[in-house]
Amino acid sequence: MGAHTGLPAMQTNPKFIFFTDFDGTITLQDSNDYMTDNIGYGQAKRRQGNLDTLEGRISFRDSFKGMMDSINKPYNECIQYLVDNIKLDPHFTPFFHWCLENNIPVVVLSSGMEPIIQALLAALVGPDAEKLQVIGNNVGARPGKSIDEEGGWELVFHDDSDFGHDKSLTIRPYRELPEDIRPTMFYAGDGVSDLSAAKETDLLFAKKGHDLISYCVRENIPFTVFESWDSILAKTKEIVAGTTSVKEAAREGFEAYKAGDAGLKPVANGAAK
Q: Where does the record place a coiled coil (predicted)?
């Protein structure tokens, strides 16, 4: 393995790697938001936490911990609740199969909990879900309790960062590989949990109408807009085929924003609404 030691996505010497968020990106709904809104402290408080995180008034770690602490349903019931209610972007599976056929590893980086993500992927993608590397937060039992009893579980963060799971920590070792073996890297995301990954890859796909676009516009981070994995697949195919460059694609997002085509209203000071 040599320089590839500790980098699972490099085992097949790929020329491209696709990193992606899970909730609200691969899925149509954010499973953590869905639980918080319906069996936690509710949509209004959750949305205010998202806005406070985007504006730097609170860390994502603290906001997300508050969300998860507001959910008392036993963990096994939470998983079943989400399997019953969360739907996959229907275009993700064709995208993933194309990546498998073209030696493009897909790595899921999530602030959600790995057991929930793996259960959802198994239910929504099928047996091929085992070929996805998943890195996220985890879950543990509260003292003296089982995770499968009322109020028995709590979030266990991936690392000590203000994000709880700093996604850049996974991406950066790939970015720092020698130029002759370093693959072109993509990232797809939609919200505040993706801020740590936004600057780390060669091309960022930001979901139309969502908070990640607001952040990219404010911080002048190049991106391209996506609405579904169908549009991601089309753009990725163009880049792999060499008919579009990463730099060309990365200019498209701000142009779409200025034209009013990014799902957010452009405003004079550059902040998106």
A: none
